[in-house]
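Can anyone check this?
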Amino acid sequence: MIRPATPQDAAAICAIWNPEIRDTLITFNSIEKTDADIHDMIGEKGDGFVVFEGNDANLLGFAFYGQFRGGVGYRHTCEHTIVLAPAARGRGVGKALMEAICAHAKAAHFHSIFAGVSAANAGAVAFHAALGFEVVGKLPQVGRKFDRWIDLILMQKML
């Protein structure tokens, strides 16, 4: 079931997100999230921050979006984050979360949504392409993690 995230979800969101931050190149960030960080994000994003809750009430993933860049000229363009628990991958959870936030963003009068995808994450590039996102740019060597330079792939979908 997809529902808006609540502050009570913070620990479960950290449990999903922090291993990806700590151990992978899917994000360039290397600073793990705290419950307080997640509380703040949920407060900032409101019902644009959603979680997928399994039948056992465990969270299988989350997604949220926000304005792409500051300033009124970007007010109709957003960017999202989506992270799934390993057990949720390939089960339709990601697609359901993306459909939910794209519908929410469209209802909030956003015109397009961006994905900033690590080039080291070929699965995420394929996932977004399957959902109608198109590659619109590649920023070479803009991220650095684990003593390695990483390209950023920008993908966009019109809502």
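Reply from J.R.: I decoded it. Residues 134 and 155 are 5 Å apart (CA to CA).
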